Automatic annotation (TrEMBL), chain A:
<dbReference type="GO" id="GO:0000139">
    <property type="term" value="C:Golgi membrane"/>
</dbReference>
<comment type="function">
    <text>May play a role in vesicle-mediated protein trafficking from the Golgi stack through the trans-Golgi network.</text>
</comment>
<dbReference type="GO" id="GO:0016192">
    <property type="term" value="P:vesicle-mediated transport"/>
</dbReference>
<keyword id="KW-0333">Golgi apparatus</keyword>
<dbReference type="GO" id="GO:0010008">
    <property type="term" value="C:endosome membrane"/>
</dbReference>
<keyword id="KW-0653">Protein transport</keyword>
<dbReference type="InterPro" id="IPR027482">
    <property type="entry name" value="Sec1-like_dom2"/>
</dbReference>
<dbReference type="InterPro" id="IPR043154">
    <property type="entry name" value="Sec-1-like_dom1"/>
</dbReference>
<protein>
    <recommendedName>
        <fullName>Vacuolar protein sorting-associated protein 45</fullName>
    </recommendedName>
</protein>
<dbReference type="InterPro" id="IPR036045">
    <property type="entry name" value="Sec1-like_sf"/>
</dbReference>
<keyword id="KW-0472">Membrane</keyword>
<keyword id="KW-0597">Phosphoprotein</keyword>
<dbReference type="GO" id="GO:0015031">
    <property type="term" value="P:protein transport"/>
</dbReference>
<keyword id="KW-0813">Transport</keyword>
<comment type="similarity">
    <text>Belongs to the STXBP/unc-18/SEC1 family.</text>
</comment>
<dbReference type="Pfam" id="PF00995">
    <property type="entry name" value="Sec1"/>
</dbReference>
<dbReference type="InterPro" id="IPR001619">
    <property type="entry name" value="Sec1-like"/>
</dbReference>
Length: 571, 773
């Protein structure tokens, strides 16, 4: 169950099947992202793929000495483009791979367009998702829901992505979904439908314990994406934003041209692979080691290169040295920027209060801290808004809830209308108690209470990483076979008797890197259990708030119109 | 794991299919497999683990149905065309031609077509009907197309060929609109002649013409192999060769560097040259690909250029990755030394073994001697006398034997006597004990005295050493200061290059027959051999390092006068080589002595060097000022290594700036986005060549350096040749001045003066040195 490997295998197979010779890779917008997540350019160059083209680009030149490998999503536009392409072929021979199930009629119209017999292969290779980490995938869909229901286009894309994932991992799972979410149920049904329809594809060798697909909804846990993060990958995403492994550093003051945009990929960056799940303090010391290591290898002063032996050592280490110098400058820049932001935005203090809001139950102290931070000029509007959101979500029904006062403070601080709107909206529509199917804050059973009590006694190891995503509890219960069927029912009559082994969790509305870390740790610590996490996207706070806003667009406009009409009538 | 060799053994349990490790449980096996083997290549290469589905058979079925129709149509047209061109048109009468034409295909009746089916114009006296000779249909003159006889012949002959070679012409045409416009214009230009007679062309409709043109295009494509493909195929062959040879070479080099004699050095050298030649070929080929069609008008499509750049880029990556993995071979001398060292090591090992055997034997002997000791005679031991005879007298305790070997003889003596005393005491011989004790006391006195003497000597030595160091420090400071004035880092490279060049010249000693400059080697011999001799005594006692200093303090001119005439003349010829001697002495001795500079004056005819030393410093400065290309490039340039830090890493294009990453390049972002690749490529290439040269120099192959430098020059786009030369020779900064491009001329590139520099950087120094002498 390694999604990166699965996609990589598909791509390698495509390239291999086309045989020797110069090749061009024809892709669409989405498959470009899919390929770039698993292959580096130099890697793919070694396989004689020299050009990368978009099927929709108009000014492609006729190059009959190239073989074309087409990796496309089976959309209507792509099929049309391909038909055009085959009518007037630009390359000598075409190997066509669709990233998902393609209809028979599309195959027929393609065949009829291939009058010059240039097509050598037509296959379905189910790499139809973005493989972020070995156990994390995304579909890069922002704004999948309208109100509480699916946007139909996104539902079909999500269904395709999820079924492709199942096929690429060769899993024909039982499905469980979150009852409180209509969207989860809908998606579960759609996936089931595809499995039934394409039953031939889903005929895999039966495993002893069938795999399990668990479909969740983000609105059940609106807390996790609102927290500041302190592990490397999550923190980079939270503060800088990761987009298909790329990080935009152009806003970093005094950034050099080469580092405007950097790529953080665990596949070919050893330092990143080793450190992506470590927390910020550890990264700091590791970066220092990396630097020292680098300094050792770096030939700088003349004395060091005077002897032939030095030179020789240098030349022999040269490629590593160059690679290392790239890695060093990249990570030093990224970590430097992170720590600058932490200082500038007063994030240590903010995060401490966030964690208190998320994990503890002391209302008055929490309120006091939030109020204090709202007065702090260093706290940005986003951080201020998220503090209030966390407060609102946690103390929604608290007797001395003083949300209105905090909202007033936000307004006084000059926080923009947008953020204030989201703040109220997140409570009312998105993740409030009314919407949630489960209780996020107070532990339910005796075991959990004791655990929390013990934790309190022991003292907290790290104030900034107290929070465990709600997903952890859900998965923990699931692994132990204790996940309640009345909250997470099976789709269909059959249920799993044994404890599940292969688990695919999908979060509608987006997963987070904190959850990815949780899954990573669960995979590590529970032998025999393999979990893959997916989401319509991978969120940081900013993108999460966007998602909330866009999903609320529908409902809110109605609501606001109601409000205005009411206020108008009052006048 | 050895179980594979043992066919009898059958293993059970949860074995990993790849490494045959026994994992205790299913889960452990599963996790083991995922952890250990999931990243391995054969996993990716082997049968795919994920689901796939092929639509190919479906596709082919649908396609076949469609294709047949077209094949038939094309074949029909070509057969008719053949009939139309089968007779001698030029000499036949119009009427006869028309009759034949009509017999090929039935013409559509004039009355049935009142309007042109293509453009819709009404036919009249002025707008006459024309028949397509290939399908018989009617069109107006405007819509009429013509097929010239050469084209017709080409089509018919090609189809004959293809019919004979293949059972069916698989390609089928398609109505095309692109070619139409062009042919219309050509028609209008010759239309005045048209009405008279069609002796060298055949009328046809646009549809038929389109079909035939399509066919023609296919024929052309089949025959035409673009240059890039030819070059690319060669490139691939070369790469395959490297993949074959490089591992073999690496095996050899490792073995040789370890001082083993499994392979012969010459053989390895040959292989190395061979591999390096292939690299050069790769470099040259990819460079050729890069510049394909650059001078053409109109310039090639940006995508073509991009393809060429990418091929070049990947070839560069290949060379960089593989070439730099090639370790250098030892030179002949180094190899001899390595061999010797290895032999010595082995001998030592043998000796140790023998010694241990010996001592064991002696031990046993002594044990058997012990009983005889009781009735043996007393032996008076004298100070400094040879160790006691074994057969008689007291024996030293065997336990002490092992350690005492390394000790001072006096100490050993003392030790022995102490043990004798013990033995005598045990035997109860008091008078013997007394004499022995007397002996012991004398020995101890002697030892003490020696120790004090030693201590005094040592302190004196230390003082001298300190003086020496101080002096060196001062000199170093002077040097440093001078260098700082002409840019610190640049100078460092300068020296480095020189030190390399020394090595590069050395091999001429080995192959003097070919080289005219044996005198260089000779001079160098003078330089290098004393170094070794002077370096050797230095190791045990630092005091020997003082000698050169003493000489230095003496009058230098005198020393020069006393030089043998022959040496003098040689020195005159190659005075500049002295710096190399100096460099040479410093580099080998660096490992031996704490202060490399101390050895400098000791090499060569010492007094002469001493004189030479300071001038050289000046000379270096002068050279820099003189605008010599060699140093000139240094002075403005920062250290290339520090510069390289700033550069993006070519190995990881995905980590680089956006524009180099095609994955995110929008198709229309085109040329702006591509410039950096160019730069990147160039930079890379420079690095490449640099590495080449370093490497070649290290192995002491001047000819290779020369060739490489040449190749480098060829490989570097002429546009920044000047920068490049500076870069290669001085190791100075390379600035890709893409804006200022001097026009490329191949002849210029070969004859450029800069070329000499990497070959023999001694040249400027040589000249300067001569003038100073």
């Amino acid at each position: 169950m390694n999604v990166v490997l699965a996609v990589k295998q598909y791509i390698s197979k495509m390239i291999e099947d086309s045989g020797p010779g110069m090749k061009v890779l024809l892709m669409d917008k989405e498959t470009t992202g899919i390929v770039s997540m698993v292959y580096t350019q130099s890697e793919i160059l070694q396989k004689e793929v020299y050009l990368f083209e978009r099927i929709d680009s108009a000014n492609r030149e006729v190059m009959k000495h190239l073989k074309a490998i087409c990796f496309l999503r089976p959309t209507k536009e792509n099929v049309d483009y391909l038909i055009q392409e085959l009518r007037r072929p630009k390359y000598s021979i075409y190997f066509i791979y669709f990233s998902n199930v393609i209809s028979k009629s599309d195959v027929k119209s393609l065949a009829e367009a291939d009058e010059q017999e240039v097509v050598a292969e037509v296959q379905e290779f189910y790499g139809d998702y973005i493989a972020v980490n070995p156990h994390l995938f995304s579909l890069n869909i922002l704004g999948c829901c309208q109100g509480r229901n699916w946007d139909p286009a996104q539902l079909s894309r999500t269904t395709q992505g999820l079924t492709a994932l199942l096929l690429s991992l060769k899993k024909c799972p039982m499905i469980r979904y979150q009852l409180s979410s209509e969207a989860a149920k809908r998606l579960a049904e759609c996936v089931k439908q595809v499995i039934t329809k394409e039953y031939e594809l889903f005929e895999f060798r039966r495993t002893e314990v069938p795999p399990l697909l668990l479909i969740l909804d983000r609105c059940d846990d609106a807390i996790t994406p609102l927290l500041n993060q302190w592990t490397y990958q999550a923190m980079v995403h939270e503060l800088l934003g990761i987009n298909n492994n790329r990080i935009d550093l152009s806003r970093v003051p005094g950034i050099s041209k080469d580092l405007r945009e950097v790529v953080l990929s665990a596949e070919n960056d050893e330092f990143y692979a080793n450190n992506m799940y470590l927390n910020f303090a550890e990264i700091g010391s590791n970066i220092k080691n990396l630097m020292e290591d680098f300094q050792k290898k770096k030939p700088k002063e003349q004395q060091k290169l005077e002897s032939i032996a030095d030179m020789k050592a240098f030349v022999e280490n040269y490629p590593q040295f160059k690679k290392m110098s790239g890695t060093v400058s990249k990570h030093v820049t990224v970590v430097g920027e992170l720590s600058r932001l932490v200082g500038e935005r007063n994030l240590l203090e903010v995060s401490e209060v966030e964690q208190e809001l998320a994990c503890q139950n002391d209302h008055s102290s929490a309120l006091q801290n939030v109020k204090r931070l709202l007065q702090n000029p260093k706290v940005t509007e986003c951080d201020a808004a998220r503090l209030v959101m966390l407060y609102a979500l946690h103390y929604e029904r608290h007797s001395s809830n003083s949300l209105p006062g905090l909202m007033m403070d936000l307004r006084n601080k000059g926080v923009s209308e947008k953020y204030r709107k989201v703040t109220t909206f997140i409570l009312v529509e998105y993740g409030g108690k009314r919407v949630r199917g489960s209780d996020l804050f107070s532990p339910k059973d005796a075991v959990a209470i004791t655990k929390q009590f013990l934790k309190g006694l022991k003292g907290i190891e790290n104030v900034y990483t107290q929070h465990q995503p709600f997903l952890h509890e859900t998965l923990d219960h699931l692994i132990k076979g204790k996940l309640k069927e009345n909250l997470y029912p099976y789709l269909g009559p059959s249920t799993l008797r044994d404890r599940p082994q292969d688990i695919i969790v999908f979060v509608i509305g987006g997963a987070t890197y904190e959850e990815a870390l949780t899954v990573y740790n669960l995979n590590r610590t529970t032998p025999g259990v393999r979990i893959v996490l997916g989401g319509t996207t991978v969120h940081n706070t900013k993108s999460f708030l966007e998602e909330v806003l866009s999903s609320g667009l529908h409902g809110r406009s109605k609501e606001s119109s109601q409000v205005t009409s009411r206020s108008a009538s009052r006048r | 794991m050895a179980s594979l060799d043992d066919p009898g053994e059958v293993r059970e349990g949860f074995l990993c299919p790849l490494c045959l490790k026994d994992l205790q449980s299913f889960y452990q096996l599963q996790t083991h497999y995922e952890e250990e083997h999931s990243g391995e290549d054969h996993d990716v290469k082997g049968q795919i683990k994920s689901a796939v589905r092929s639509h190919l058979s479906d596709f082919k079925k649908h396609r076949a149905a469609r294709i047949d129709h077209y094949v038939v149509e094309v074949n029909k047209l070509i057969i008719r065309l053949e009939k139309l061109t089968a007779f001698d048109r030029t000499n036949a009468e119009s009427a006869k031609i028309r009759a034949i034409e009509k017999s090929v295909v039935p013409w559509v009746n004039d009355q049935d077509v009142p309007f042109c089916p293509d453009c819709g114009n009404k036919f009249s006296i002025r707008n006459r009907r024309h028949h397509c000779r290939l399908c018989g249909s009617i069109m107006c003159k405007k819509c009429m197309e013509l097929i010239s006889l050469p084209l017709a012949n080409k089509l018919t002959s090609a189809s004959k060929d293809s019919l004979s070679s293949h059972t069916s012409p698989s390609q089928s045409p398609n109505s095309v609109h692109g070619s139409r416009r062009g042919s219309i214009s050509s028609v209008s230009s010759v239309s005045s002649v048209l009405d008279e007679k069609d002796d060298d062309r055949i009328r046809c409709c646009t549809h038929c013409k389109g079909t035939l043109l399509k066919r023609e295009q296919q024929i052309d494509e089949k025959e035409h192999i673009p240059d890039i493909v030819k070059l690319y195929e060669k490139l691939q062959l070369c790469m395959e060769k490297v993949d074959q040879k490089a591992p073999e070479y690496i095996r050899m080099a490792t073995s040789l560097n370890a001082g083993e004699t499994t392979y012969r050095l010459e053989h390895a050298n040959d292989l190395r040259v061979e591999v390096q030649k292939v690299y050069e070929l790769i470099d040259a080929l990819s460079k050729k690909i890069l510049t394909l069609g650059l001078n053409q008008d109109p310039p090639p499509h940006p995508n073509t250029l991009r393809l060429q750049r990418m091929i070049r880029y990947s070839a560069t990556l290949f060379v960089q990755e593989k070439l730099l993995g090639l370790m250098s071979l030892p030179t002949q001398e180094q190899f001899e030394e390595l061999k010797k060292r290895k032999e010595e090591m082995e001998r030592k090992k043998m000796l140790e073994k023998q010694a241990s055997l010996e001592s064991q034997r002696r031990l046993e002997e002594r044990r058997s001697d012990l009983p005889s000791r009781a009735n043996g005679e007393v032996v008076y031991l004298r100070r400094g006398s040879a160790p006691l005879r074994k057969a008689e007298g007291w024996l030293p305790l065997s336990g002490g034997q092992g350690q005492s070997e390394d000790l001072d003889p006096l100490l050993q003596q003392i030790h022995n006597i102490t043990s004798f005393i013990k033995q005598a005491k045990a035997a109860g011989r008091t008078d013997e004990v007394r004499t022995l004790q007397e002996n012991l006391r004398q020995l101890q006195d002697e030892y003490d005295q020696q120790q004090t003497e030693k201590a005094i000597e040592l302190s004196r030595k230390q003082a001298e050493e300190e003086d020496l160091q101080r002096e060196q420090l001062q000199r170093l400071c002077e040097r440093e200061w001078e260098r700082e004035r002409e840019q610190f880092q640049a100078a460092s490279l300068h020296t480095r290059t020189r030190s390399l060049d020394f090595r590069e010249i050395r091999p001429f000693q080995l192959e003097p027959s070919t080289e005219p400059c044996t005198h260089l080697a000779h001079a160098l011999d003078l330089g290098s051999s004393p170094v070794q001799s002077s370096a050797t005594p230095k190791t045990p006692s630092p005091s020997s390092a003082l000698e050169p200093i003493r000489v230095w303090s003496g009058p230098p001119a005198l020393g020069q006068e006393f030089l043998p005439q022959s040496t003098m003349s040689q020195q005159r010829e190659v005075p500049s080589l002295n710096p190399f001697e100096e460099e040479d002495s410093s580099s080998p001795t660096a490992e031996v002595s704490t202060s490399p500079r101390a050895a400098e004056p000791s090499c060569g005819p010492p007094s002469h060097i001493l004189k030479e030393y300071n001038p050289f410093e000046e000379e270096e400065e002068e050279v820099a000022v003189a605008g010599n290309p060699f140093t000139n490039s240094n002075s403005p340039a920062p250290n290339p290594f520090s510069e390289e830090d700033e550069r993006p890493v070519p190995g990881n294009p995905f980590e680089e700036a956006t524009c180099t990453n095609p994955f995110e390049m929008d198709s229309d972002s085109g040329p702006e986005g591509e410039e950096p690749i160019e730069e990147e490529l160039l930079l890379q290439q420079i690095d490449n060549i640099k590495a080449y040269i370093f490497d070649a120099k290290q192995c002491g192959r001047l000819d290779e350096v020369e060739r490489t430098a040449f190749a480098g020059q060829m490989a570097t786009p002429n546009l920044e040749r000047d920068d490049y030369i500076g870069n290669v020779s001085g190791g100075g900064c390379f600035k890709a001045n893409l804006d200022v491009l001097p026009p490329p001329t191949p002849s210029q590139s070969t004859g450029s003066p800069g070329l000499q520099v990497p070959d023999c950087p001694a040249a400027p120094a040589l000249a300067a040195g001569r003038s100073l002498l």
